[in-house]
Amino acid sequence: MKYFINSTADYHQHDLNSLGWELTVCNSLEPLDSPCRQALLSPCSFGQHLYNFLKEIIPVDRIHTLLEIGGGMGYLMRDFLALNPRLRAKMIDISPYLLTKQKETLHSFDVDFELADILTVSSKALSGFDLVIMNENLGDMPTLVAEQGRKNNSDQNNPAVLERLEYFKNKYNLPLGLNENEHINIGAIEIVEKLCFAGIKYIYLSEHSCEAVAPEEMKPYLLFQSSGSPEMISLKGHKEFTIKFSYLQKIADVLNYQTRRGSFADFLPLNLNDKVKTALRLITPFSDEQEIIKQFVHDLYKYEYLILIKGDEK
Ligand SMILES: C[S@@+](CC[C@H](N)C(=O)[O-])C[C@H]1O[C@@H](n2cnc3c(N)ncnc32)[C@H](O)[C@@H]1O
Fold first, then answer.
1. Which CATH architecture does the domain made up of 3-313 adopt?
2. Of the ranges 10-19, 121-130, 212-221, which one carries the lowest mean pLDDT score?
3. Ligand 1 midpoint to CA 70 (Å)
């Protein structure tokens, strides 16, 4: 097994000065006149949709404290606090630029902010929160990149990292490293264990998945295959990896969490009207709007969420 570590920490700490390069599903639904809103059955923002979905699954009246990790522009938290003003909220983010943006977006709410890499925050420091949200950011966490034959990389085969790999492999019975070409979402794995060890009652995670499958009714419109192994996505100034959610789900199972998993389309239901169908059928879209709709609908099925509910909570 030969790995080097892909980290986005430097990029987020020092280079990131816009999220425009990386249009998240949350941000694509932000403008009131976004064509993405029109492609949904109900033209609400991402946070409004997600809050209403979570309300059906977890008892929101029992949630008093909420932590969002990697909250980008702060739109999701703004919607949650508008819908449930009695929540006590905190944002942790590695990016000074985005933390400043979050402070601007959330200026009218009473929110705590912390500039930190979540991987350096202890389980104990997280243990007071009832609900933790990590939306569209697990792919930013460190990944062990399998590269057969790669030479002269100082991170290769870092003994501490290999020891962690061995630990996760044995503790959660995960086949890590058996396929020597498979990249490993080591940061996402660390975080799921950390949040479960902290005893968080409810955890919501989401990201681009390497295991997502288009439902039968969408197969005529969507052309994506899931490799089942984390795939590299090259973005401005950094690289991310899609997430192997089945491994995260297994860790949660072992740690006595119930899980619910699905695609974004579960809580962002698509309005498959003629306009959307036309955009999806075009190999080369005629307009920017058609291109935006095509990408958005693709993301609705390629992004997965995973909700963890602590064993004794429901
Ligand atoms: C792709 S953006 C997603 C933003 C937002 N959640 C959304 O859905 O629009 C990734 C976010 O995670 C943050 N982030 C990345 N790595 C992090 C880390 N190690 N610790 C804390 N935050 C991190 C970034 O600064 C950014 O806010």
1. 3-Layer(aba) Sandwich (3.40)
2. 10-19
3. 3
